[in-house]
Amino acid sequence: MIRFFARICPLLSFVGWLVVAPGFATDAELSKIESREPRARIRAELLRETKIGSTAADVLRFVTKNFIPKDATTQPQILNHPAVGPTAKESEKRGVQSIRIVLGDYISRPALLLLDVPVISKTTTAVQWAFSKDGKLIEIFVDKDTEIGDRKGPDDQ
């Protein structure tokens, strides 16, 4: 029995670290919103902060103030193209301009790490604000994209 616990405890602590660590390693942070929350909840929270009809400049100020990217090269900006992605593709409210940020990523299925051959399943949450030709907010899109694996080949270090 002691051998069992000696073998399983390090494994459980490692799995716990993998589940908790991505919460701290997000690309953007807002105290109320976490990337692992459901899409509808994230959208509702963002609509409270950036209401439909807000100007693109106001939304950009909100995003710049509340979401801190990991590196300086990914500063949020107003893009001169409609919102893209699976959620926007199905909508008529893609707009003509958009702002896009990656809210963060997390291990979406930690149980897959306990398989005989562990599998990493990472979900990335992205948010886009779509603006009309008048520069007014018309929609907020939240997408979640799940990747299986670590994107490394057998010869990668």
What does this structure look like?
- The chain is built from four helices and three strands; from the N terminus they run ααααβββ.
- Strands 1-2-3 form a three-stranded antiparallel sheet.
- It is α+β, with helices and mostly antiparallel strands and 157 residues long.
Structural class: alpha+beta
Low-confidence stretches: 20-27
**In order across it, which strands form the biggest sheet?**
1-2-3
User: What's the SSE pattern?
Assistant: HHHHEEE
Mean pLDDT over all positions: 78
Largest sheet data: 3 strands, antiparallel
Residues in helix, %: 25-40%
Rg on CA atoms, Å: 19 Å
How many helices? The count is 4
What is the count of structural domains?
Answer: 1
Distance between the termini: 36 Å
Tally the beta strands: 3
| Fraction of residues in β-strands | 15-25%
Coarse shape = elongated
Which descriptors would you attach to this protein?
157 residues, alpha+beta, three-stranded antiparallel beta sheet, 4 helices, 3 strands, elongated
